[in-house]
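Pipeline run #58 for the internal structure catalog. This entry was flagged by the ingest filter as a single-chain record with no existing model, so it goes straight to prediction. Upstream metadata was stripped on purpose; only the residue string is passed forward. Reviewer on rotation: M.T. Logging verbosity set to normal.
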Amino acid sequence: MKPILAPGKLGPATALCALLLAPTLVNAQGAGWKLVGITGQQQNSDATAYPDHTLFDLDTFFTDPGFGYANRMFTVTWVNDTQCIGYCPTNGLLYHMAGSESYSNNPLRTGSDQNGPDVFGVGYQDSQYMETIDLQTRRYHAIFNADPCPNPDPTLPCFGLPAPRPSWVLPTERRDHTQTGGEYRARGTNEYDAMRGMAWSSGKNAFYGSDEQGIFKITPDGDSQFISRPAFPNDNKNNVSKGILVIPETLLIGHRDAGFIMEVEAETGRVLRNLELKYPAGGGTPTDSFGGVLGLAQHPDTKTIYAIRKTDDSFARELCTVDILTGDTVLIGDMQQHIASIAFVSSGNTNSPWRLVGITGQQGSSDAATHPDHSIFDLDSFIADPGFGSSVLLFKATFVNDSQSIGYCPADGLLYHTAGSESYSNNPQRRGNDQGGPDIFGVGYQDSQYMETINISNQTFRAVFNADPCPNPDSTLPCFGLPAPRPNWVLPVQRRDHTQTGGEYRARGVNEYHAARGMAWSAAKNAFYISDEDGIFKLTKDGDCKFIGRPAFPNDNANDVAKGILVVPERLLIGHRDAGFVMEVDAETGAVGRNLELKYPPGGGAPTDSFGGVLGLAQHPETGVIYGIRKTDDNFHREIVSIDLLTGDTTLLGDTLLHLASIAFVEIPPLKIVSAVRNGSNLRITWAGGRAPYQLQARADLATGSWTDVGASTSDLSATVPIAATGNQFFRVVGQ
């Protein structure tokens, strides 16, 4: 992290610098990578405190040394017994292995998924399993499965996702419940027992795996090859291999029960040396030895090697650095989880400035603290940390009655916000308010379509058009938004007054929309497409509007329920407001091409027998992943999901706990100091870019000492601080 120094002096005792914290997904040890771990089969029934076969983000141990903790990500596919993970940089996927060779001749032996119902026959059949996990979309793909469903013998269990049974497993066919003899536990030449650790080799384009039967090479498509079964020189044991690392022509293998790492030849398994690791100062018991080496991972950029240290407490496994020349180890922190395997994974494009934001709609709630209306929220943590994301309030947009939607224009870097609606009431006394504020008479009586631009960097607003600007020619009626010209496509040309209560004063222009429900940018057309209950419209940045068509959803023939909208890129995808359908239409004519039914996202709220409604759509500009707002039975539990347009599969990323109405990806510029102005004994510092909340910090010397917070964290873009009478002062602004 490099300070940006402001040129010149601010005064005799003041200097200024700005510092942008690394983005959420970048760890302090090197941009682009984060450390994750998976918990093992620990036979603990407390799934809340100690979840099994669950991925954890361990990056806070780097970003916040001494105060790090294991941050739960999500639970992966359950397969009985051993868990391990490895990352393949070639395809950007995390590989997860689980299951084991048959180890029981009792078809009634019971096991369970962490205090779930008893499963009879666990361990009776082979169950080796490997799958890939896309951490961005949380999609799984099984590579092989020795015990897939359905089981030919219905009295015996099956596990994991469907996949071919590996050819290297013996017996070729699964034993049935009558075949209880030991001869039915045959092992193939290249069959491992239960993979304890795995590490990627770029040179071999394959994983090396450690197992109690030795070292194996596993290709990404699931072929297994036995290498050898080396023994640790310290105790001559050949069945205790656990952590494994490729560096890059030899293998480092950790001893499961003792603090030793042996180095072996990758091709032959010949032991080259045996390194004893030293106790990490400050670690838990045992304090007279390292313990066991349960996992190994090397940072791809810094080349620092990290290990899982086995302590006397299974739920106090520690993360340490390892010097493989000296055996010195340094404690990074207690993970307080039964972490069984670790791997560095790509955090995606960590230099990506794109963030998902959303705006809340007119939900009629007076609780502005919990459910703020017409407010912009940062939703990016739902993508960065699926299952544990949260909605972060950025700021309120301009209040205009009724529908809210947003769209981002990469051509000018501005967020566009539409609100308001066509006249829908003939009652000049109809009341409304801004979320529990004072009553406003005449809401909905006049046209109020409105569009403004928002500069996310400095939170400045500029109105493009306004059908109901202030002042209102009829002082008994309301006006909304910032001043701007009334659009020429709105009818009537002049605003009706409070005496013109007839329906004829609610005329609609040919190109006039009712209330924009969603908007999406088209680079090819240099304009937005908007969805409205009266159809699809094209809306330029300067406010010109053109009607395209009014397509109906084939599932119910409804033509007034268009909500979420997306350009991809020559056609439009339009979400059904009340049902889980996305129709594809021609952008020029509005002709319907197909209608895709979305599937219920596992773990989502009610309704559980259908998707619900598609209230917003947005596509990440770099990854291409499509995200949607799912309408549930509770208006304040709208969910973020990812969508597969080929299959209709959806994946739950989290509950926003908000009445979200529209989403868009925006480009967030870097945090920078804009100005520093002295006023007597005070200094006013203004900044822009980055992500809230911000924290102003100060120190007296850049070479020594630590930064201290000045005031509380804030979503504001400026702060005023007193200047010290003597000595230097350096300031920085920290963002997320």
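catalog note: The chain has three domains: 4-22+670-734, 33-346, 354-667.
catalog note: The radius of gyration is 30 Å.
status: ready for reviewer M.T.
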